[in-house]
Amino acid sequence: MREELYAEIFVMEKEHWWFAARHQIVLDLLRRYLPPQNGERQKVADLGCGCGMMLQRLSQNYDPIGLDGSPHAIDFSSHRNVAAKLGSLPEDVPLERGAYDAVLLLDVLEHLKCDHASVEVAASLLKRGGILICTVPAHMWLWSARDAHHHHFRRYSRGQFSALFAQPSLHLELLSHLNAILFAPAAAWRLFVGAFEQNGVTDLKLLNPKLNSALRKIFAFERKMLGKVPIPFGLSFIALARKR
């Protein structure tokens, strides 16, 4: 990811509707699929932790550790008083194997050439019965200069994403589209803008507070649908797999 994006993300990821809602969705899945045991804090590894906002939110109820390949990300995470290590998937992961109750890959795999090997390494970090939660951008027909600006290698089809979890050590318990309610206007906007844009300028911008709050609530509402109501379309995919 471009270095200047880390500073932008650090400033806005606490309040920006997309980050805040995605964090709510993931935290809800952790509560549902990883219930507390014996009052002990469960260990969660956030791979590709960025500037550490998710780690900060996890720290309220879990024992989190982050990993990121950018020194800028590690530096920004330190300002949030959360633990993060420098490393990169799939080769350089200085974390103990078989030690974590949950591992997160939140919009990370699209940045990696070796996505299948990275999922395999992420699974190796889990305890038996632990869960892996992944999110990725959906549909190559939505590809735009914005994806190139963020150093994406791909957007995923459902089949491509599902194939990443076809590993002996994992059982796929949930795979769904995400960001469905806002899909139509967002897709139309990206296709329209994508026909003209050249530089892939980031769309990470803080909106009017009322609009930002409304979009966060709309997106976060989908946490009530996941695993209960089929979501046939969306801007992203989300998967949850359990270590056998």
How would you describe the overall organization of this protein?
- With about 240 residues, this protein is an alpha/beta fold.
- It has one domain (about 5-244): Rossmann fold.
- About 35% of the residues lie in helices and about 20% in strands.
- It is built from nine helices and seven strands; from the N terminus they run ααβαβαββαβααβααβ.
- The protein has helices spanning about 5-10, 15-35, 55-60, 70-80, 115-125, 145-150, 160-165, 185-195, 210-220, and strands at about 45, 65-70, 85, 100-105, 125-135, 170-180, 235-244.
- A seven-stranded mixed sheet has the order 3-2-1-4-5-7-6.
- Helix 2 (about 15-35) runs parallel beside helix 9.
- It starts with a helix and ends with a strand.
Distance between the termini: 33 Å
Q: What is the assembly state of the chains in this entry?
A: single chain
Which structural class matches the secondary elements? Answer: alpha/beta
Sheet with the most strands, sense and barrel status: 7 strands, mixed
Widest sheet, order of strands = 3-2-1-4-5-7-6
The CATH class turns out to be: Alpha Beta
Q: What is the CATH architecture assignment?
A: 3-Layer(aba) Sandwich
